[in-house]
Amino acid sequence: MPRLIRAIYRVAPDAQALARCAAQHFVEHAERAVAARGRARIAISGGSTPKAAFALLADPAESWRARMPWSKLDLWWVDERCVPPDHSDSNYRMTRETLLDHVPLAPGQIHRIEGELEPEAAAARYESAMRNHFRLEGAELPRFDVVALGMGPDGHTASLFPHTQALHELGRIAVANYVAAKSSWRITLTWPAINSADAVFFLIAGADKAQTVHEVWMGPKDAERLPSQLIRPVGGILTLLLDRAAAALLPAPEAEGCGTLERKE
Length: 265
Hints:
Strand content: 15-25%
Low-confidence stretches: none
Radius of gyration: 17 Å
Order of helices and strands: EHEHHEEHEHEEEHEHEE
CATH class: Alpha Beta
């Protein structure tokens, strides 16, 4: 029987408004998780769009910094490049400089991917850390409260790139993935691990993403070419936060800049 995949999308007028929308999304999900379970376990992505949201979360002049339950957060990463933590390409470094250096998070709340290690060793250590933290047994997957994703013009998300081996991994939580198009190794959460989250949201900006956004959520399924189609959280909450340029080929949003997309698989 075909499964109905539903996504709620929200369109911001520009990059600044999109960053504010993302900051609000982080805080609201963290507050909800802490109210329900006492902690919020969040997995984040790198890139220029989340960087702007992190800057808002770290800004003492913004209400989100005061609202965020920092002492009850556990921060994880969706993916990482195989570089040292002080490398300019490191997702961890970007987050540290933009957010971590400016907010009250203890070292034990920050769970980075050790990109400086050999790729397979880095993936194994990261998976082991999650298994210990979440107290997982057997084939259990971590249940993040929220996972924040980006999407590339090629349809990749996390470091799940088109036509790469990680797309076929069903039993692992984190894997090393060689990306021939980038001539580099990446460490990434697998799509089953991402889909085990209570909520997942995409943060997407730029006109160069518009055609891909349309194909991923309105076109036929072709996850080998468009890995973002693999994301369908078991919690049932999939949200797209887009700027106007990225949303240009979607149906006009309904009231208050929001709309709903549905796709049968």
